[in-house]
Structure to design on (717 residues):
């Protein structure tokens, strides 16, 4: 903490500014809903996506710096004596990681919002309001997901070139070799062999560098001393998380293809029950894929916290109270999460029972019931 | 360069004391507003008053932590390693406070409202108290330099910290009551004007008494800061006392304008006074600002961030408060 703050903290300083701006404008946007004129209200919302993207880029820059530390000079005793802030922020890992996270945010945002409307449509609320809600949100996710596959592919190749051990964990490669199969599921044993799973011959090598194809050499875990390798459990966690992320991402991509094919051939969104069920599930799978991606990034960097400079065990506090804090924080957030769900359910029950009085609660459905509006249905353009 | 960043840091601390402090103080008045019926109207006014601005008020804290961590990593390591107990308590309080405040508005049952309200209000008192003890620990030299951990308990359970904690709670309550008088007046609620006016006077007196006791505690236990307060920072201390007294007189005479600005002046000048008094130490008397500072490149980045802050965030804040004062941001459910 004391050792790297002068470098690692720089992106956070900028993130703080964007976060601050976001907090201010989100207050204005939410509280100004009823009193500001519609256009004034619209303009107070415009800064939000801008600072949101910049804030995300800054905070991911800090994490990327842990993967590709740069922009500092140390003296003989290991203290940071010189910092180049631009090289800290725009470190080698930052552009692709930031892009991957920002696109992921649009995937999650789009599919998660759409999933709520999809679920409501399954329950028979097929009015204009729900249709527009679904189409706007799902289109965002369905545009973002193919982009995400490209960005993710580039990032994986960056990891192949710059963090070979993480890549070896991702692809389950104990020893350096060529013609490495892409193993779906499966696990690494403590004796260094791989068992289970479905190997696709040569695919991991081919994906790492299509130019050299299946003869591409992939470095194994054994290229670094045992102390610098992730443990077997960590390797298996990384590999499973990778499979989850890529697998779910691919399924969501196929769902997006279905959606666009329907628009192209039938000029309408798919309305079958199967599609709507899958679209409802996509909200959850998007979140799972995002979390799995962070597991790949974080667990895959083990045992390092600052890659090749500092190990996690050397960075951790020596305070004995850490477990107490950890348990309390966990309990606090379990409590908050449960309360949030209970309150949301309670609100939903209340809305169903007696409609909603606008004055009652924030964020209640506003205005006339959507069913009445659907008479003035307009064509929806995407 | 390190001086400039230290000034930025202290300006942020002052802003947090003035804006965030008032926000916590509103929670204090919520706590002591009495039963569900008697306290209904004061709680409505409090909800209405802090609703649109509470979130933004607390980003100052994040800014302070980031600047301290990045600009003065050694001091940050020492402070967080020594004072992790009050800082963790404050963090819990902040999380609990925000979520309870949001939850309370969405539930109907009196029992639920009371539970969330209590969580909101109690944490509103715990957080400024903890922050005060942290300030007291730093001022009294109980945080060692070198990124070392001091004593995890006596560092913040000692006379200076306790007085500083109580002063923080009293000052927060005082600021909040003064702001709430103003907001009640905007709502044309004469009963609430006099309700909060009485409380503002009470809190001002209590804050004054605690500050007075604090002088003697500082003299006994935080000699460097005491010497600074009675020499270099003396004009600021006098200014604070004058502002405080003047705002008290205006409150008693029920003046409309003046108490608010004077109250801000009283609080801001004493916080700045603390900074001036312990200059040029970051951690009196073991770590100076210059020694604690990060390399030049980092400080330049922080300065650039500060300029960006002044260009982007400050106008945003002005817009937020202006719209709020013009009643264009009605609290949800309260029109």
């Amino acid at each position: 903490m004391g050792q790297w703050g002068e470098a690692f903290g720089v992106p956070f300083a900028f993130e703080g500014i964007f976060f601050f701006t976001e907090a201010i404008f989100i207050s204005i946007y939410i509280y100004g809903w009823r009193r500001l004129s519609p256009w004034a209200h619209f303009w107070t919302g415009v800064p939000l996506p801008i600072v949101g993207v910049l804030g995300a880029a800054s905070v991911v820059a800090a994490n990327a710096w842990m993967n590709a530390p740069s922009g500092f000079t140390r003296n003989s005793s290991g203290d940071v004596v010189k910092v180049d802030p631009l090289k800290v922020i725009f470190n080698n890992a930052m552009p692709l990681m930031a892009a991957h996270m920002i696109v992921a945010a649009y995937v999650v945002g789009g599919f998660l919002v759409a999933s709520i409307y999809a679920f409501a449509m399954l329950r028979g609320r097929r009015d204009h309001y729900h249709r527009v809600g679904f189409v706007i949100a799902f289109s965002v996710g369905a545009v973002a997901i193919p982009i995400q596959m490209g960005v993710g592919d580039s990032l994986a190749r960056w990891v192949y070139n710059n963090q070979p051990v993480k890549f070896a964990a991702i692809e389950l490669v104990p020893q350096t070799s060529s013609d490495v199969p892409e193993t779906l599921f499966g696990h690494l044993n403590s004796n260094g062999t791989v068992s289970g799973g479905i190997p696709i011959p040569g695919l991991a090598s081919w994906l790492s560098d299509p130019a050299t194809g299946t003869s591409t050499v992939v470095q194994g875990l054994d290229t670094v001393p045992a102390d610098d390798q992730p443990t077997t459990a960590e390797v298996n966690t990384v590999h499973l998380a990778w499979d989850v992320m890529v697998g779910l991402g691919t399924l969501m991509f196929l769902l997006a293809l279905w959606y666009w094919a329907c628009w192209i051939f039938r000029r309408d969104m798919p309305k079958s029950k199967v599609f709507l069920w899958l679209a409802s599930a996509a909200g959850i799978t998007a979140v799972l894929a995002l979390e799995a991606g962070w597991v790949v990034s974080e667990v895959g960097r083990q045992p390092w916290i600052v890659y090749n400079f500092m190990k996690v065990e050397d960075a951790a506090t020596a305070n004995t109270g850490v477990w107490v804090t950890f348990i309390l924080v966990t309990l606090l957030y379990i409590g908050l999460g449960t309360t949030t769900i209970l309150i949301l359910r309670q609100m939903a029950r209340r809305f169903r029972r007696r409609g909603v009085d606008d004055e009652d609660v924030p964020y209640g459905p506003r205005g006339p019931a959507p069913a009445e509006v659907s008479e003035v249905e307009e064509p929806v353009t995407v | 360069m390190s001086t400039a960043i230290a000034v930025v840091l202290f300006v942020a601390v002052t802003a947090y004391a003035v804006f965030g402090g008032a926000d916590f103080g509103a929670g204090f008045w919520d706590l002591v507003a009495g039963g569900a019926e008697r306290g209904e109207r004061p709680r409505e006014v409090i909800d209405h008053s802090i609703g649109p601005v509470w979130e933004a008020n607390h980003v100052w804290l994040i800014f302070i932590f980031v600047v301290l961590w990045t600009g003065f990593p050694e001091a940050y390591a020492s402070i967080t390693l020594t004072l992790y107990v009050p800082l963790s308590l404050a963090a819990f309080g902040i999380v609990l406070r925000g979520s309870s405040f949001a939850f309370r508005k969405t539930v109907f049952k009196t029992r639920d409202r009371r539970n969330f309200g209590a969580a909101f209000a109690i944490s509103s008192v715990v957080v400024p108290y903890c922050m005060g003890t942290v300030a007291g620990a730093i001022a009294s030299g109980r945080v060692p330099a070198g990124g070392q951990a001091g004593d995890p308990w006596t560092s913040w359970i000692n006379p200076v910290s306790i007085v500083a904690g109580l002063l923080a709670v009293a000052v927060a309550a005082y600021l909040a009551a003064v702001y709430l008088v103003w907001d009640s007046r905007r709502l044309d609620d004469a009963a609430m004007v006099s309700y909060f006016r009485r409380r503002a006077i009470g809190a001002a007196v209590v804050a004054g008494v605690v500050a007075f006791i604090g002088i003697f505690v500082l003299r006994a236990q935080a000699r460097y800061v005491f010497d600074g307060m009675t020499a270099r920072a003396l004009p600021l201390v006098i200014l604070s006392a004058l502002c405080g007294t003047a705002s008290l007189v205006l409150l008693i005479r029920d003046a409309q304008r003046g108490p608010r600005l004077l109250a801000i002046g009283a609080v801001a000048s004493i916080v700045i006074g603390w900074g001036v008094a312990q200059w040029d130490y970051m951690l009196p008397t073991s770590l100076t600002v210059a020694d604690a500072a990060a390399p030049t490149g980092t400080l330049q980045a922080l300065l650039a961030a500060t300029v960006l802050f002044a260009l982007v965030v400050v106008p945003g804040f002005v817009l937020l408060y202006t719209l709020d004062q013009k009643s264009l941001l009605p609290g949800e459910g309260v029109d």
Q: What stands out?
A: Confidence is low (pLDDT under 50) at residues 358-364, 366-382 of chain A. The longest strand of chain A covers residues 80-83.
